[in-house]
Amino acid sequence: MYQLLATTPMGMEAIAAKEIQTLGYETTIENGRVLYNGDARAIVKSNLWLRSADRVKLVVGRFYATTFEQLFDKTKEIPWENFISENGQFPVQGKSLKSKLFSVPDCQAIVKKAIVERLKRAHGKQGWLTETGALYKVEVSILKDEVLLTIDTSGAGLHKRGYRLAQGEAPMKETLAAALVLLSNWKGETPFIDPFCGSGTIAIEAAMIAQNIAPGFNRDFASETWDIIPDGLFDEERTLAEEVAEYDKEISITASDIDPKMVEIAKNNAIEVGFGDIITFKQMNVHDLSLTGEKGAIVGNPPYGERIGERKEVEEMYKFLGELIHKYPEWSLYILTSYKTFETLIGQKATKRRKLFNGYIECTYYQYWGKK
């Protein structure tokens, strides 16, 4: 049994925790991370299925240290040979905050040396370790003198789903886009509209959620070549993921943007992931948006009006969205923006608000639930 840690941006811990619980594991939430216990299969399932987490790491050790000697000794006590193969590559990265051991290069060098000593003793080696095998990225993270040692099981961040051929200048991460859809509770039974689609990320993530497609089905992970992962386990879980996917499920997703270039990019990204025929793309001004049908969900990340001259335009747009949901009360509206007076412009208080970060911009996710 291993202790695992899923990293998330601030504000998204509970969303990732819920996903991990759905996979069958009990969770503990800390700032920017979710901790849980699981076996090798948990590592595989987490990487394949987590939509809102950034990475899945293996927790190898956790202890307090205020001197380099303590850091070395306690790191060396850990049975690294149970995780890293004899010829494994293990570069060490680090970070330190509010701690006596604040020199990150020194901490990295000491942790590296301690692991080398431990592995040499465990494998009865003299001289250098070859480090030609699988990659085990070790991280030493020190916060208020508490040392956390982890190994990254994911490789490239989990937001790298493999479908984004191109993007705009301020693309939203796939993990955040998925979180917005998960928070809307949209499952594909009603129409879905993103009127500010950019490179199509929200619409594509929505389609993957509705058809129950594992977000990691199309990529590789660092831990695939590890000795602690039984042979064929990744293939087995990919086959299971393929079996539960609902590729034939009828869904209605429309994605539009005022910029024809972005619509073209979004279309190509959707084709890359196999949603070319499922998502309808349109070049359209949001003011031309009209709603039909009983109910549905509008989920979007509109321009925030950060640039001079955009403000009036953005305010008009927000007012229009307010008129739209006033006219169609069965529709739900979910908007991520950093605009402080958003609710005033919409003309009503949100049913629920959530603080989220889009990159480094602090935003609020305003949720207006449609009438049942």
Descriptive labels:
372 residues, alpha/beta, seven-stranded mixed β-sheet, 10 helices, 14 strands
Net shape: elongated
What about the largest sheet?
Answer: 7 strands, mixed
Low-pLDDT regions: none
Our Rg estimate from Cα atoms comes to 23 Å
* Helical segment count: 10
| H-E string | EHEEHEHEHEEHEHHEHEEHEHEE
Name the average pLDDT.
94
Structural class: alpha/beta
- In angstroms, what separates the terminal alpha carbons? 44 Å
Content of β-strand: 15-25%
The residue fraction in helices comes out at 25-40%
Strand order of the largest sheet: 2-3-1-4-7-6-5
Q: What is the number of E strands?
A: 14
What does this structure look like?
- The two termini are 44 Å apart.
- This protein has a 7-stranded mixed beta sheet with strand order 2-3-1-4-7-6-5.
- It is built from 10 helices and 14 strands.
- With 372 residues, the protein is of the alpha/beta class.
- It is elongated and about 75 Å long.
- It is 32% helix and 23% strand.
- Helix 8 (260-273) links the parallel strand 9 (253-257) and strand 10 (279-283).
- Helix 2 crosses helix 7, helix 3 runs parallel beside helix 4 (104-123) and helix 5 packs across helix 6 (201-210).
- It has helices at residues 13-22, 40-49, 68-77, 104-123, 174-184, 201-210, 233-244, 260-273, 311-327, 342-346, and strands at 2-7, 27-30, 33-38, 55-64, 92-97, 137-143, 146-152, 192-194, 253-257, 279-283, 297-300, 332-337, 352-358, 361-368.
- The longest helix has 20 residues, at 104-123.
- This is Class I SAM-dependent RNA methyltransferase.
- GO terms for molecular function: methyltransferase activity.
- InterPro entries: DNA_methylase_N6_adenine_CS, RlmKL-like_Mtase, RlmKL-like_Mtase_CS, RlmL_1st, SAM-dependent_MTases_sf, THUMP_dom.
- Residues 42-153 form the THUMP domain.
